[in-house]
Amino acid sequence: MMRIVQHTGIVLATVALGLLSWAQTVRSPSQAQPRANPAPTHREKPDNEALLRELEQMYEQGQYNAILQRTQQAVQGGGLTSVSLSHLRARALHRIRPQEPAQRQELIPLWDSLRETYRERGFVAGEVEATLALAFCYWQTDRARAEQLLNDALKRAAADADQPLEVAKALSAYATDDWFDLREWSICQRLWERALALQEAHGADELTLARTRYNLGVLALKQNQLETAQARLQAALAVQESQAPDSPELASTLLALGELAQRRNQLAEAQNSYQRALAIHTANQLNTAETAQIHLGLADVARQQRRWNDAQTHYERALQVALSVDTQSREAARAQAGLGVIALEQGALDAAEQQLQRARQNPHLEPLEQAQVDHELGRVAWRRGKLNDAVPYLTRALEQQQSAQDTPLNIAKTLYNLGALTLERGELPQARDYFTQARAIRERESPRSLPVAHTLMGL
Known about the structure:
Radius of gyration: 25 Å
Structural class: mainly alpha
Strand content: under 5%
CATH superfamily of the domain at 366-459: Tetratricopeptide repeat domain
Largest sheet: 2 strands, antiparallel
Number of strands: 2
CATH class of the domain at 366-459: Mainly Alpha
Distance between the termini: 55 Å
Shape: elongated
CATH architecture of the domain at 366-459: Alpha Horseshoe
Helix content: over 70%
């Protein structure tokens, strides 16, 4: 199983589709749906079959450029006559840079040809995959065409098919690998919900159902739909704890539940989930981007509890693991930002600014992570007495939080700091407005709390 890290505490599982088994499927008269032109059966030649097995293994390992080289050699040698080999070439191209013009120039006719071939053969799973891939290729240049292709894929997926679970795999895989990267949450939801409906209706195994429910839980968490996320993730957890204890899949779900608890300010529960996830990674000797995310979760909890030494230890470990995976990873930037906050709390302003600026330069930070970095850089400038520098940082942080729908209490914190900062600058009407907004949120979300008292003092 190939796994893609997408977010703080979030790992999405994608399911590779077995092209060899597709190509070798022979319909019996009792299984086939009536159609005017019966779909021809197809079986790979022995030499193609061996190459296909090798290429599928390379695909699972992410060796996309190597696949392109091998299939190009087959084309030049006159050996690329297999639909399955053409499909693997299309997949490899798609996984590299499907939005670039040069890639699309080859991909679009390739997927179009495969789509037509699978339609003629009545192979719904292959047709659905090719249609989804085409939609993704057109997304940046022809949105109307892409939307139509998405609708076609979902409509085709709803039709009766001999292999409904393979159709579900295609839907789930493209939601995971393509649309999640583009942050197209509504498309992901349509694909995963349709996949889940097919899986539930056609007897998918419990772990497959758990994986799709997990993905839907992650999606709800992305959209700050915490109740929905809780229900989906708990459903996945129940199955994984009984059928896949100590598995990386269980660790992924625990990681997501840790973030969910942390958003609700349930720090003890968050810490427990993160610690369980870390124990699984340790037992399996894993050092992946997800391992870094677990340490980041533990570090964030420790920071919120003002356990500075524990926080620093986990941030440093997260940075070490993240850099070993990818020097430009988002996890590395988050660890640098965390170390910057620790330095700020300890009064080491130069070190704080250095770490935060390193994090800020990372192009992979998500909007809310960028907002946190700007917020902390504003605090650094404020501590140095550079009020004119602090205001733009905090204002930009607030705009990013509101645009990306951050949790209300996080927004209230930035509003409060802007109130205190503008009060110090003598801008009383502006300060009063910020404090009033912060007070309204805090009284609604956490009445009779210390932050409410602080806001009242500001007013």
